[in-house]
Amino acid sequence: MQAPAPFRVAAIQTVTGTSLDANLARADALIAEAARGGAELVLLPEYFCMMGQREADKIAIREQDGDGPVQQFLADAARRHRIWLVGGTLPMWCGDDARVYNTSLAFDPRGERVARYDKIHLFGFTRGAESYDESRTILAGSTPVSFDAPCGRVAMSVCYDLRFPELYRGLAGDDGASLILMPAAFTYTTGQAHWEILLRARAIENQCYVLAAAQGGKHENGRRTWGHSMLVDPWGELLAVLPEGEGVVSGVIDPARLAEVRQNLPALKHRVL
């Protein structure tokens, strides 16, 4: 059986604002840039479609499953550019008038949806005047999700999930995932302290690539996000990184590199628990 070919991926970094139309237009331009660069899979960041003045603003643009302008935008862009496209997150109806699911959707090059993941772990942080509690406006998902792409098994996750390694162990299965996706809007405070460390740890312990697409800058609503979208290889090496501002980070998922790391240090086979 012939080994899979190298597979180019890209992470898009945005500084999302309060206008849905403007955010989608900017995302469209960056997706096109990534596709022109040869990306076969493109990952958008968490909240790529909206970062409102208030946390509750996302409720106003929530969509029913399978219907809505953001979902249509993602399907159209995937089909138009013939790419695998993962829409960081968008707000989806959850049956609660005061909350939404924070949902990541994956589309194949035909524009057909192949996976939906509702963020499981909800962020909460308080230090001085800085305070966040996602549970006020978001309902947690409950089901880990992965899907198959030409590069192998792809594990889905969102932002705060990064701090929970057991999620990825469960998604990896016996053979391991080839790629972990991490769309995020890490705060400047927590990102500066832990973002790179955690991304590299997840890559090392799961012996796979990690593609992280982040929000990166000062937003209209006053929030500042850490950025540093990146691609990490199975040995924990940084292959590409964009510190701040809008742009595209890209690199290659190399099956030979995956095999080399797992053969030299067969930690996945040494698992006991």
UniProtKB/TrEMBL annotation:
In alphabetical order, the GO MF annotations are:
deaminated glutathione amidase activity
| KW Hydrolase (keyword) present | yes
Every CN hydrolase domain range: 7-255
State which Enzyme Commission number(s) the record gives.
3.5.1.128
Short name of one Pfam family: CN_hydrolase
CDD domains linked: nit (cd07572)
**Protein keywords:** Hydrolase
The family this protein is said to belong to: Belongs to the carbon-nitrogen hydrolase superfamily. NIT1/NIT2 family.
PANTHER family cross-referenced by the UniProt entry:
DEAMINATED GLUTATHIONE AMIDASE, NITRILASE-RELATED
Protein name, UniProt field: Deaminated glutathione amidase
Provenance organism: Cupriavidus yeoncheonensis
| Gene, per the UniProt record | nit1_1
